[in-house]
Amino acid sequence: MSYRQSNQPVDSNQASNQNFNNFARYVAPNAKVASNVQASTGSENKLDPRFSQGHVPSPTFSSSTEGSTPTRVTRDSMGVRNYVTAPPTNSGAASPMWRGPSPEAVTAPNQPNWSFSKGNYPRFATQGMPDESSTFHNAAAQQAVPPDLSRLSLHSAQYPGPTLPSRNVVPNSPFESLASETQRHYPPEARQSPVTRPGLIPRPAMPHTNYPSTAQSGVSLASDTQQLPRPDLSPFGVARRIKEGDISENYLASLQNASNMRNQSGSQNLAKSAEATLNASMNSFLPVACSEQVFKPVLPCFMRLSVGMFPNAPSFRSKFPFPVGAVVQPLAEPPTSEDTVPVVNFGKAGIIRCRRCRAYINYLSMFVDGGRKFRCNFCGFLSDVPSEYYCPLDNSGRRLDANERPELTCGSVDFVAPSEYMVRPPMPPTYLFVIDVSSAAVSCGALNGFVSSIRQSLDFLLGDDRTRVGIITFDSTIHFYGLKSSSDNPSGKLDPIMAVVSDVDDVFLPIPHGCLVKLCECRESLEILLDRLESMFTTTKDSGGAVGSAVSAAYLLLQTCGGRLILMTSSKPTRGVGALSKSALEGGERNSPGIVGTDKERQYLEPDNTFYKKTAVNMSRAQISCDIILCTSTHSELATLTPLAKYTGGEILYLPKFELSKDYVVLIRSLRRMVSRETAWEGVMRIRCTRSVKCHGFLGRFFMRSTDLLTLPNTDSDKTYGVEFVLEDNDIRTEAFAAQCAVLYTASGGERRVRIHTVAIPVTRNMADLFGFAEVGAMTNLILRTCADAVLNKNFETVRKELTDSLVQGLVRYQQGGSQMQSQYSAATSLSNQLALPEPLRLLPLYIQGILKSPLLCREASVAASMLLDDKSFLHSLVDIFSIPLSSAFVYPNIVPLFPLDEETNANSQVGLISSSGPLSVQLPEGLRASAAHVLHSHRVVLIDEGVNLWIWFGSSVKPSFVQELVMETNEEIASEHNGAGASISPQYLARAFRCAPKPGYTSSASRARALIASILSCRLPWTPIRVVFQGDPLEARILSLMVEDRTVNQPSYTEFLSSIQRQVQSRLTNS
Questions:
Q1: CATH number for the segment(s) 430-676
Q2: d(CA 158, CA 959)
Q3: Whole-angstrom Cα distance, residue 13 to residue 28?
Q4: Is 80 exceeded by the pLDDT of residue 971?
Q5: 828 CB contacts (<8 Å, ≥6 apart)?
Q6: Which residues contact 758 (CB under 8 A, 6 or more apart)?
Q7: What are phi and psi of 390, to 5 degrees?
Q8: What is the mean pLDDT of the chain?
Q9: Can you give the pLDDT at residue 132?
Q10: pLDDT tens per residue across span 218-264
Q11: Do domains 430-676 and 893-1041 have the same CATH topology?
């Protein structure tokens, strides 16, 4: 793909402005450069004219005014800019390259100082520019920019430098709702970071940070550990992390910048804003097909890349040890109604696509030849524009109607697909419930729960009048039911017909018609059947077990129309097709808690047979998805059933130790959520990338039809996919890397659509850019899910070592550039007592330690004792579809106090949440760091959000009256159950009470605590368990395992882990 800049003449007075506008954007042939903005310090001063010649002044040294600390500006070989402040002259023999505090502040050689070097800015690399080039990152350029407009000012008395978002600071403006994930109301602190072009992963001017390490283990760092890198624990930071996960401040700033530009009344107002022009000129490129004012980027909830700049060559990529990929949630719920994905119907023109690579038209497509052709931004091919879609171009090379075209102004868009995108007419939404009626399901109350949840979910089924339903039950035989339509039976005899198939080794359909019926026509007959099911099998003695045969029967029923199979079971597959082997049925080690956390675990997490995987593949080809709801009181071999959901895009709901009184609410809400959320039927997904890049290592629930085509019989707003990008033999020869996720699906209303998400980032040849513009939330998500897959094929220690080595190797790569810089300017400074971390990845060591301590890789006895194989298999299935908010909480839990709450702090907190019970606004308190010394106080009640569990811990000194008040807020009668832990209410009852909606209003401490629980729970999946633990309970060991920063029997503390990493980094640097 080739692009050229405008050849129109520009006078010398506009040279610098033209250069800044052409520096980082594609300009259509013969397009006119429209920029009349000049950033200047006065009426005569203009930007350095050397920029217009493609030359950047060499780095210089600057000193502050008298009485200020001199600042030395340097640049290392990786392009990282450093501001090194020398100590005062009276501080003794100070090195000119001294970082941080003065030497006299160091009191002991084994207690190094923790310092933050906030002045190292990753360099800007752009193809076609000199390798030394940098946008404004030098003293000469800064002198040409007014100090009040520059956000990249030098660190000196005159230029205090960029104001980064401070941590643990209450925002001045409210983060109005956690439900408004990326609303445009970010606090002023979040807007101070350098803002880049909206829609792209931003290029923040973020420094690297030097964190010291201990010279030996066992040194007390109680006073120093406060400065260790942690997530933002302010109310705003915790609220955002619960809903959005870890997300770059500059990413948020870029979205705010996009909103600000859209709010501009016109290009004339934009031209009057010197600051807006300055920010825009720092971008690597701008949207091509539309103006910046109307552009709407892909929201991070839909698609987020793990890096903000893409490596340009395979050899370069191989030096970066962290994943370069994307986390995609194509049907995610938009945060606000304003962010709803627009729908575009091209009509007779058909969907506009590249004729060669078949990429869809987007905001980076360039129209040429007067609008008769457009150039693909993925492969560079010129395709003809259909006459029905033709529109003339304006002077800037854009279509006259570009700003009114969602496909040219939005990163996310839905295209209405014409008939050529259909193999068959869209099928109606079909739900087939396969229910276990064996004695195991009856005895634990699961059958009653299944029937009640189905009955209460009928009003929430998608598809309106087109919706079809059916029911199959099974024990040791298979039962089919023919439902009758009220219109076809005027006599009113709507009793369903029942047919039994006893040969479970050769299943067939005994009723040719009536098993799948329209809900609107046969609802009365269906409700009659549901009412009778509970009584029909109340006294059954049949142990059941024909799970595989029931699945085969459902497949026969759905194979011609597709749909959703919802398997609701409580028993193991013991007979018929798909029955477990003798060794699996006997149990043995499979039922032993001691097997979890050992290398033997891996072999038992594999399916016992291949029947369910083969059946799932056949179901995927027939556009059938399978959801599994497993309610059991014993080991049920979930690992064997998991492929049914894994390869069909289904859901898994696992409720161990099922009791109807305890799990009734969870079961009903979960099924309601499964059938009512936005759903894509009969889908396929493909991710296209810039030429020379291919997709590899897909993560999620799907079946791979080809090397890059994912079959999704059913996907929904809760499903998340991961992908890694791999460079082929050729280098990338374009200025931008683009990735486009396309999902072809049938909407619940019957319309065939294509959901498109297009993101783009600059291409770089500078290693500093990969570190400086990384996105830790997406990167951690990919690392976690990759480890979950790896541990099924390798032993624990191998995976743990590979994970740690990748972190060490990454920091070695980063520090090698810093070491070269130090040796270039001063050999006196040593990094032996510091661990340099790039600012965007400053949390990565903490999160990798969280992965190492998680139940996925942990070998602690306290964790293994609380988990069975079914629990571990379910955990793997959850991690397989983890969104970024869930993965962020999983590696470092969100911890907030529930009692006591600081009245003054909470009143000042303007962070609002929306609970599941309605418009219940709650003010969030300050978060707590994951350390027992800071969390587990006897007078405190805390909530710990682990992503997969919601833990509520009660200290031993909490008054029983407060526990009673918590239950009083549920509008239910109190059932006092003594548990011997100093409270009159049992943990099990408390967990059930917390599921209920609290009373409106939250003036008391108990009501505010209840509102906080409900609000945070509404941000998690409805089947997220609530686990209540009283201080001193055996389950408290599991709480201690969530304290990521603390030392455990087999794992070091956070400080010790950093020290270990630093020693390994220093060793490799010494030996390299």
A1: 3.40.50.410
A2: 56
A3: 23
A4: no
A5: 95, 96, 97
A6: 298, 360, 362, 363, 364, 411, 412, 738, 739, 740, 741
A7: -65, 145
A8: 76
A9: 32
A10: 333 334 577 899 999 999 899 999 999 998 766 666 566 655 655 55
A11: no
Q: What is the pLDDT of residues 917-949, one digit of tens each?
A: 343 467 789 999 999 999 999 999 999 999 999
What pLDDT is recorded for position 259?
A: 59
List phi, psi (to 5°) of 1043: -80, 85
Instruction: Quote the CA–CA distance of 656 and 845 in Å, as a whole number.
Output: 34
Using alpha carbons, list the distances in angstroms from residue 1068 to 140, 222, 816, 1061.
37, 29, 10, 11
Does the bond joining 900 to the residue before it have cis omega, within 30 degrees of 0?
yes
Which candidate, 679, 589, 639, places its Cα nearest to that of 880?
A: 639
pLDDT band at residue 974 under the 50/70/90 scheme: very low
Per-residue pLDDT tens digits for 858-871: 888 777 777 888 99
Q: Are 687 and 740 in contact, with CB atoms under 8 Å apart?
A: yes
**Per-residue pLDDT for 375 more than 50?**
yes
Q: Other C-beta atoms within 10 Å of 160: how many? A: 11
First to last CA, the chain: 39
Which pLDDT score is estimated for 258? 59
How far, in Å, CA of 458 to CA of 449, rounded?
Answer: 15
User: What does the DSSP assignment read for 328-355?
Assistant: E-TTPPPSSGGGPPPEE--GGG---B-T
**Closest-CA residue to 871 (of 1049, 528, 1053, 604):** 604
Is residue 565's pLDDT more than 90? yes
Bridge partner residues of 175 (DSSP): 911
Non-local CB neighbours of 620 within 8 Å, separated by 6+ positions: 647, 648, 649, 703, 711, 713
Written as one string, the DSSP assignment of 351-384 is: --B-TTT-PBP-TT-EEEGGGTEEE-TTT--EEE
| DSSP for 480-497, written as a single string | EEE---TTT-TT---PPE
List the structure tokens of 2. 């080739």
Report CA torsion sign: 400, 403, 405, 411.
positive
The beta-strand segments (E) located in 364-446 are 366-368, 373-375, 382-384, 412-416, 430-436
CB 868, CB 596: distance < 8 Å: yes
- DSSP designation for 59: P
Q: Which of 194, 88, 317, 358 is nearest to 813 (CA)?
A: 317
Strand segments (E) across 196-342: 208-212, 303-305, 310-311, 325-328
CATH 3.40.20.10 fits 893-1041, yes or no: yes
Q: Which range among 194-203, 375-384, 914-923 has the greatest average pLDDT?
A: 375-384
Distances in Å between the Cα of 109 and the Cα atoms of 98, 117, 463, 584, 764 are 16, 20, 70, 59, 40
> What does the DSSP assignment read for 113-176?
PP---TT-BPPP--TTS-TT--SS-SHHHHHTS-TTT-SS--SSSS-----PPPTT---SS-B-
Residue with tokens 């996960």: 245
Mean pLDDT check: name the lowest of 72-76, 427-431, 644-648, 801-805: 72-76
Top-level class of domain 346-409: mainly beta
Q: Are 536 and 608 in contact (CB under 8 A)?
A: no
List, for residues 11-32, the tens digit of each pLDDT value: 434 433 433 333 333 333 333 3
Bridging pattern class, strands 430-436 and 468-474: parallel
Q: Where are the alpha helices (DSSP H) in 144-263?
A: 235-244, 249-263
- Which region among 53-57, 322-326, 502-506 has the lowest average model confidence (pLDDT)? 53-57
pLDDT tens readout for residues 1013-1040: 988 998 999 899 999 999 999 889 999 9
Compute the distance between CA of residue 256 and CA of residue 510 in angstroms, rounded to an integer: 61
Rounded to whole angstroms, the Cα distance separating 429 from 471 reads 15
d(CA 451, CA 769): 56
